[in-house]
Write a structure and sequence with these properties.
The chain is an alpha+beta fold and about 90 residues long. About 15% of the residues lie in helices and about 15% in strands. It is elongated and about 65 Å long.
């Protein structure tokens, strides 16, 4: 069963173990003033493929082949294939 935190108008804070199907409390257990359930934000970290690499930490050195500008280095085979493709197109 979850534990819910409540706060009354006069500043009293208390926790109650309730089932999720139970109705929320309406009055303070100390002073019978109206109460509100207190919600706390949950920390969420999105990790994995599909998220920005700059969001969490830095890249490890040597993790990828890139030059000083951060752009991936092109391989000689990529240059050769593009050069042969452009020369074959111009000869047609």
């Amino acid at each position: 069963m979850p534990i819910y935190e409540y706060r009354c108008e006069r500043g009293h804070t208390f926790e109650v173990m309730q089932r999720m199907t139970d109705d929320p409390l309406t009055s303070c257990s100390t002073c019978d003033a109206p109460v509100e359930r207190v919600f706390h934000p949950v920390a969420v970290h999105f990790k994995g493929s599909g998220f920005y690499a700059t969001d969490y930490g830095t890249k490890k050195p040597g993790a990828g082949a890139s030059d000083s500008t951060g752009k991936p280095e092109s391989t000689d085979s990529a240059k050769d294939s593009s050069a042969s493709k452009s020369s074959s197109e111009s000869s047609d």
